[in-house]
Design goal:
Elements lengths: L2 E2 L4 E6 L5 E7 L13 H7 L16 E4 L1 E2 L2 E2 L4 E6 L21 H7 L17 H14 L4 E9 L2 E2 L2 H14 L5 E8 L13 H10 L4 E6 L10 H4 L18 E2 L2 E2 L4 E7 L9 E5 L4 E5 L14 H15 L3
Antiparallel strand pairs: 1-2, 2-3, 3-7, 4-7, 5-6, 8-9, 8-10, 10-14, 11-14, 12-13, 15-16
């Protein structure tokens, strides 16, 4: 389904090349100051245009349709919409006959008997992360004592920062290929005990929401997969104060599915962009044979560059829901 949450419930709608995309949020407390300008900072962090990102640049201007009056939330469902203006739908006509490797073209066509909108990836497009970011802005206001910070820590297997990544980005652009990346998120200020075991544990809910971001291939908390190689004496976190502060944070701030008062730390692995300029092999339904596909259109070389704010938004949505229960 396209909705997430119980007390703070978020529903996204629209397609990449449709008239608009948007989000409806239910359970927003009344009286929170909110204007369209409040979305600007996080929207700008997701925006394309930098090296390695798609040349498709949209206005990304939010329009609040409901749930706000006199600059304050009303308690009614809050809806925000974004218009799509910079589209080139003709680039996607070939994909019904030759579905793109790594995309949902084939699976979604089978599921919905080819009634789905394939343009720009339709409802499966990364463009749908824009309304998620908008919901994250509202969620951060609901949990304003919680600090969420996500940053890109690796691109194409290279750790570091912008300067270190320029070479691998340039090479991928030259090769007509793409790169993946890793985002690390740290959350501070979550009260001890937040979380609802068994199935609504903090890790379960964050992982559920984060895996909804297109292109996510893995999520790990604290020591993550490295914990499988450790001994208990190495992985366990010694408690050093009556507030639950630990001397290390191998658990990533969660024990038994509950926040333990330490920073919640997790990392997200993003795959390389599936749409690349390099020719690929795929099945051609018009000939009944394997053919060569050269993908037209405008695509990110490394869409992970734009995802830290999306990861923050998903974490905020989860915590706004859990902390409202």
């Amino acid at each position: 389904m396209n909705a997430f949450g119980q007390k703070f419930r978020v529903s996204v709608f629209g397609e990449s090349h449709g008239r608009s995309i948007g989000v409806v949020m239910d359970g927003v407390p009344a009286g929170i100051p909110l204007s369209e300008q409040d979305f600007s900072e996080d929207i700008l962090r997701r925006k394309s245009g930098a090296k390695g990102t798609t040349p498709r640049i949209e206005d990304d201007k939010p329009e609040i349709l409901s749930g706000v009056f006199g600059g304050k939330t009303t308690g009614a469902p809050l809806s925000v919409v974004f218009r799509n203006n910079n589209t080139k739908s003709s680039d996607y006509e070939i994909f019904k006959e030759m579905p793109r490797p790594g995309h949902a073209d084939f699976a979604s066509g089978v599921k919905w008997n080819n009634f789905n909108d394939p343009r720009g990836g339709g409802h499966f497009s990364g463009r749908l992360t824009l309304p998620v970011v908008a919901a994250g802005v509202v969620a951060k206001k609901i949990i304003d004592d919680v600090c969420i910070n996500a940053r890109l820590v690796e691109v194409g297997g290279v750790p570091g920062g912008d300067e270190q990544w320029l070479d691998v980005l340039d090479q991928a652009i030259k090769d007509g290929d793409s790169l993946g990346g890793i985002v690390e998120c740290s959350i501070e200020g979550v009260p001890v005990g937040v979380g609802e075991p068994f199935f609504d544990s903090v890790e379960s809910m964050i992982s559920h929401a984060v895996f909804s971001i297109p292109g996510v291939r893995g999520v790990e908390f604290g020591d993550g997969f490295h914990a499988a190689k450790m001994k208990g004496s190495e992985h366990n976190d010694p408690i050093i104060s009556d507030t639950g502060q630990c001397g290390k944070n191998g658990a990533g701030g969660v024990n038994g599915g509950l926040a333990n008062g330490n920073p919640i730390v997790f990392r997200v692995a993003f795959k390389p962009t599936s749409s690349i300029r390099k020719p690929q092999r795929t099945y051609d339904f018009t000939t009944g044979r394997i053919g060569t596909l050269e993908i037209p259109g405008r695509h990110d070389v490394c869409f992970a560059l734009r995802t830290p704010v999306v990861v923050e938004a998903m974490a905020a949505i989860v915590l706004a829901d859990l902390m409202s229960r």
